[in-house]
Design brief:
The protein is of the alpha/beta class and 494 residues long. The protein contains 14 helices and 22 strands.
């Protein structure tokens, strides 16, 4: 069993408390390693290192910063299989999905490396003679990166790579359930040549390490992915402690609309992948199917038949379709929602219980679960469950389907299956989500486009794509007047 340490100012160091905790494989209870349980004093040291490093890192030419990220991308690519296998062991998702998680990190790192030579500003005509007008991006400062366990390589990369190429420095607090992946990612950044203090890694709980970062006056921005409730707390604390910048990527209650003219076989594949991929533990997972009544029964039977054949097990096994939930508390949470669905009057079609036979008893497994005859006002149709639970909601028209889709507090991803181009474009226009798919499921975003959503899914910022640069940079407008006399804009140009 390997022992890991914090990474502060270019050195791997123990937490000041001396306390440690273990990382556990959710499929079988295997102990994978030990990490520190840090506290505010470790945060203090990490933030101080990041602030000092910012003074010089911001002055490193952006193309040179990009070259370091390019080297990091190459190392990530070389170690993809090693990272993926540890990801399956530490988080639980099946190995092909784990490889996809790492590939997203590779993709965003290559992409942001290119931004080292492409951080475009604007040059615009000035309204007065002999005057030059332009804008440039500048880094914000020290970024606290607080990430979840479900994408333990991809999401930290989404946040750190744009931060770094823009000249910011980072204090990284990973999820307590997937600390080893965080250490492996930081080791790669260190090997790629990041100077000491530019990235700092502090293991520990949200209550101690997370709270200390939110309150610290030396942190200029917090980038957080997690639940809506936690996001509200992060935003409140950041406002109260220095009016810090904050980027929030929060929950989802994503729906696939299936119209009567849809290719049901294709829709079935998209629904299964979106609902039960990553055991439903994605913010983009499909937890609602909004289906026209004329095909609702047929689609229900198709989903139930296929979902019943999904095989649960260790994600490293080729025979496994669905891995474990992250821990036993997640199993209990999912089961509570299943009981709520029963009490609300939804019809249980499949599943509805933990899987505890044989080897599965060692892990945190829950059977793929399907409810039918779900009303839009039921809690299972409105609240994020974050597990393998799918609700089928019958509707009469496309207009009603769009209204049901948009009626929840979240607005991350949506999808529609139809063969009618007019209906497809109506949905594209009217679905109030940050991501819209036509004839594909709700999951599978690409890093060259913005990732994020409407309403309580976040606070308006986006991960990935060019939009990510806006979250992690300041705009500076510059005017150069070479007329040799006082010129007053909006006054002397009348």
């Amino acid at each position: 069993m390997k022992s890991y340490r914090n990474y502060i100012n270019g050195r791997w160091v123990e937490a000041k408390s001396g306390r440690r905790t273990q990382s556990i494989n959710p499929a079988n209870g295997e102990v994978l390693g030990e990490v520190p349980l840090s506290g505010p004093e470790d945060v203090e040291e990490a933030v101080a290192a990041a602030r000092e490093a910012f003074r010089s890192w911001r002055l490193v030419p952006a193309p040179k910063r990009g070259e370091i990220l390019y080297r990091a991308a190459e190392i990530l690519r070389e170690r993809k299989e090693e990272l993926a296998r540890m990801l399956t062991r530490e988080m639980g998702k099946v190995l092909p999905e784990a490889r996809g998680d790492v590939q997203e990190a590779i993709d965003i790192t290559y992409y942001m490396a290119g931004e080292g030579r492409r951080q475009f500003g604007h040059t615009v005509p000035a309204e007065l003679p002999n005057k030059w007008a332009m804008s440039v991006r500048e880094p914000i400062g020290v970024i606290a990166v607080i990430t979840p366990w479900n994408f333990p390589v991809a999401i930290p990369s989404w946040k750190m790579m744009p931060s770094l190429v823009l000249g910011n420095t980072v204090v990284f607090k990973p999820a307590s359930d997937t600390p080893i992946l965080a250490a492996m990612l930081v080791e790669i950044l260190e090997e790629a040549g990041l100077p000491p203090g530019v990235v700092n890694l502090v293991f520990g709980s949200g209550e101690e390490v997370g709270e200390a970062l939110l309150r610290h006056p030396g942190v200029d921005m917090v980038s957080f992915t997690g639940s809506v409730e936690s996001g509200v707390h992060v935003a409140t604390m950041c406002a109260q402690h220095g009016l810090k910048r904050v980027s929030l990527e929060l929950g989802g209650k994503n729906a696939i609309i299936v119209l009567e003219d849809a290719n049901l076989d294709l829709a079935l594949e998209g629904i299964l992948w979106s609902a039960f991929g990553t055991t439903g533990q994605r913010c983009t997972a499909c937890s609602r199917v909004i289906v026209q009544r004329s095909v609702a029964k047929k689609l229900e039977e198709m989903i139930a038949e296929r979902a019943a054949r999904l095989r649960l097990g260790d994600g490293l096994l080729e025979t496994t379709d669905v891995g474990p939930l992250i821990h036993r508390r997640a199993v209990e949470r999912v089961h509570r929602y299943v009981e709520i669905g029963r009490q609300e009057g939804a019809r249980l079609v499949l599943g509805g219980e933990p899987a505890q036979e044989g080897e599965l008893a060692k892990g945190s497994f829950y059977r793929p679960t399907v409810f039918a005859d779900v009303r839009p006002d039921m809690r299972i149709a409105r609240e994020e469950i974050f597990g393998p639970v799918l609700s089928l909601i019958p509707v009469d028209t496309l207009e009603e389907a769009i209204q049901v889709n948009n009626s929840v507090q979240y607005g991350l991803s949506s999808a529609i299956y139809t063969q009618d181009v007019n209906r497809a474009f109506t949905a594209i226009r009217d679905l109030a989500t940050g991501i819209v798919y036509v004839n594909a499921g709700t999951i599978g975003a690409e890093i060259q486009l913005p990732f994020g959503g409407y309403r309580n899914t976040g606070n308006g910022h986006r991960e990935a794509g060019q939009a990510a640069l806006d979250a992690y940079s300041e705009w500076k407008s510059i005017y150069v007047d070479y007329s040799g006399r006082l010129q007053r804009a909006q006054i002397d140009n009348q």
